[in-house]
Amino acid sequence: MTAKPLVRYTVVSVLCLDPRRRAVLLVEQQRRGDGEPAWSLPGGTWEIDESAEQAAIRETKEETGLDIVLKGLYDSRVEVMEMPDMRVAAFILTYEGECVGGELRPQDPDGQIRQAAWVPVEALDRFTFQFPAQRDLIKRYVRERWGIWPAPYLSHPTPRVEDETS
Prior knowledge:
CATH class: Alpha Beta
Oligomer: single chain
Number of helices: 2
Shape: globular
């Protein structure tokens, strides 16, 4: 049996929380490999003429329609995904971001993003993630910033997403 080739990518992602909504900014796209919908933090690869920080800002704008400022690098990690014809190793730089404007409306030139949404943090376990470790990363971030997980005062009976007017 022939081993699957290993493809390496370096990508950026942005973790934005909205304390008022107690929600995290996520995007839904087709999962690589099987085409099923999956959620992730906004992000992607960067162009040859931009820095990782510039890519994080651009990717977030394209995938969500929102303007952000970066507060700094929060995490770096490698995630390996098994695909039918290859293995993918993604080196992911996750930045802490703050939304400062824009309208929640994806403008993805690649057409991969189905929707962008503010997802209540307590509903994360009910969502399928493109990169499963992102769920734990978000939970860790919430614990560090808000001091608890899950927040007992944040309970919704079913998963829901919020638009900008909520």
